[in-house]
């Protein structure tokens, strides 16, 4: 565990790094044509979430230079890799095939979609992290599934301005409460700082984090759950994630949110009149 001063500095560092990155990244994405129509048919930069692992890396580098015994970079390796896979899907994505059933159905027919690549790659990254987390084969299987499903869950949420960040923050609080006293907040502080700085940009529909960002948020949550929660809590988490995925294969998550007064209020909180 790290002291709260160190955690605060890491949080602030993540926000500062994110601000610097967005200042250069968003105009670059616009200039090279990395834009996409959002649900309001507005052309805005996509893959802004590339900034999340970069901000995390910058803060980690500074702390590593100041610390003769820097912490391991296992989570950073996973975040960078999963963001890259998300970026591929953002830029080259085939929108004719959707959902786990669609992507794996295409794969069984000998056709690899970008979504299929992301799913296979995400599963491999989750397995890689789970093996290094350790705890025996049963724990490795459970942790792999948690991280893989958590990564995709955030993709499912990233359909309206601010929704994925709100989901990330809500699940982060839930995991923190359940795993009280067992979390190394220092590891997550730079990413949280970056996400909080980026949040208004997403709420105002000035950019989309894309899968390059939502993948990062999902994997980070899954990693936190895998390394902090008890066995029973992780099992409950996995059951919840599987249920969400089964539900979204049949029903629209956006429609479900809009039909619920509470969920709709949370979803619309902070948005302007021009972005839903």
TrEMBL record:
Signal peptide: none
Pfam families given in the database record: Glycos_transf_4
Cofactor(s) named in the record: Mg(2+)
Membrane-protein topology: Multi-pass membrane protein
Domain of life: Bacteria
Residues passing through the membrane, by range: 6-26, 46-67, 73-92, 112-134, 169-199, 219-244
Keyword field contains Transmembrane helix: yes
Keyword terms, alphabetized: Magnesium, Membrane, Metal-binding, Transferase, Transmembrane, Transmembrane helix
Residue numbers binding Mg(2+): 155, 211
Gene Ontology MF annotations: metal ion binding; phosphotransferase activity, for other substituted phosphate groups
Localization, UniProt: Membrane
A GO cellular component annotation in the UniProt record: membrane
Name of protein: Glycosyl transferase, family 4
Species name: Syntrophomonas zehnderi OL-4
């Amino acid at each position: 565990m790290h002291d709260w001063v160190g955690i605060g500095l890491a949080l602030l560092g993540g926000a500062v790094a994110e601000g610097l990155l967005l200042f250069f990244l968003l105009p670059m994405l616009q200039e090279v044509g990395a834009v996409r129509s959002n649900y309001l048919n507005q052309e805005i930069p996509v893959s802004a979430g590339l900034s999340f692992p970069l901000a995390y890396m910058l803060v980690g580098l500074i702390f590593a230079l100041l610390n003769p015994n820097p912490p391991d970079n296992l989570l950073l390796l996973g975040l960078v890799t999963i963001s890259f896979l998300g970026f591929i899907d953002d830029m080259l994505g085939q929108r004719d095939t959707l959902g786990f059933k669609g992507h794996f159905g295409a794969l069984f027919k000998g056709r690899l979609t970008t979504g299929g690549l992301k799913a296979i790659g995400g599963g491999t990254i989750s397995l890689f992290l789970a093996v290094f987390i350790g705890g025996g084969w049963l724990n490795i299987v459970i942790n792999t599934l948690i991280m893989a499903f958590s990564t995709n869950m955030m993709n499912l949420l990233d359909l309206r301005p601010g929704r994925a960040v709100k989901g990330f923050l809500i699940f982060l609080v839930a995991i923190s409460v359940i795993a009280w006293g067992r979390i190394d907040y220092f590891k997550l502080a730079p990413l949280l700082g970056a996400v909080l700085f980026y949040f208004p940009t997403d709420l105002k529909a000035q950019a989309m984090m894309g899968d390059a960002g939502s993948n990062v948020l999902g994997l980070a949550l899954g990693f936190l759950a895998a390394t902090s929660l008890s066995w029973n809590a992780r099992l409950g988490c996995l059951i919840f994630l599987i249920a969400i995925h089964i539900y979204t294969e049949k029903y629209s998550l956006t429609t479900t949110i809009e039909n619920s007064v509470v969920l709709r209020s949370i979803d619309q909180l902070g948005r302007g009149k021009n972005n839903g």
